[in-house]
Amino acid sequence: MKATIERATLLKSLSHVQSVVERRNTIPILSNVLLEATEDGTLKLMATDLDLQIVEVVAAAIDQPGAITVSAHTLFDIARKLPEGSQVQLSAADGKMLVVAGRARFNLQTLPKDDFPMIAEGDLPTKFELPAETLKQIIDKTRFAISTEETRYYLNGIFLHVQDDGQPVLKAAATDGHRLARVTVARPDGAEGMPDIIIPRKCVGELRKLLDEVDGSVEVSLSSTKVRFGLGTAILTSKLIDGTFPDYSRVIPTGNDKLLKLDPKAFMQGVDRVATIASEKTRAVKMALERDKITLSVTSPENGTAAEEVSGEYTSPGFEIGFNARYLMDILGQIDGDTVEVHLADAAAPTLIRENDKAAALYVLMPMRV
After folding, report:
1. Which of 79, 90, 245, 311 suits 301 as a labelling partner, its CA being 20 to 30 A distant?
2. Residues ≥6 apart with Cβ < 8 Å to 266
3. Which structural domain, as residue segments, surrounds residue 75?
4. Do 78 and 188 lie in a common domain?
């Protein structure tokens, strides 16, 4: 194999594919990126961790077609340190790959391409397109609520499913048992009849990075076990989480009759200030509600007490409720508008948070005893 490629192009593609590669691998080939030079003047780069696979195709000057695998992180570090604007020559022979750019030469160990594992996609019957902006919104407004508890593996991702709520919609939800985030968008053409799927956390993270460089739409193809995203020059394929997502609609409260309206940014700053002294373990902040007055307070046995009044609209009977400050701030950070609606019932019931009843995103937060 022999190819010449511009450093910037190589670096950008390697930055996409190498982040899939785990730093510690018991299987040596999984530390490598597959480079495949084809006669039609393209270089294909591919990396996998056996659950997630990314392929990117870029233009290059090909002198000799062929394929080889080489350490992904090493090649990425080399490309990063090469001079800007340089042309990088990659040539592989006799179990080694020579990388030449300007006066720099690197001779790297390689492994044969035949050992490189591929994810067999199988048939992906459901196909539709989603605008990149919509996909970004779905990820940004839900992924903070993805559970990191490995024992409840079915919560370690974003749940996507279609529903008919008077009109056909696509819903994305994530929960860790303490909070729930859900985004609803119009169902794209072709998504009708799609299976319910759970996209793993790592795939969500890699997809979000790639979306920053995509204008227009993303092609989504899926079956009940795999999903593939077509993102311009890159294709991301992932296995799905094999599990059943709980019926989260049961925890979304419908009868919360106490309405509090606030400025989300000012409220978030207030929570952040009083939480400075909260103990790391509980991070509990208490909200005392009175007519048009909300008092935030924290009591910590080690550090002392803190309190702050924040303004808001509230006309229901007063009461006190406690929340985890971190969880509350995570949700408030997703609100784009100038007001947020907090629908409360009592100190023990789940609280519903949303921008308004027209907003695509909705959040549920479980209270804490304080």
Report:
1. 311
2. 310, 311
3. 2-115
4. no
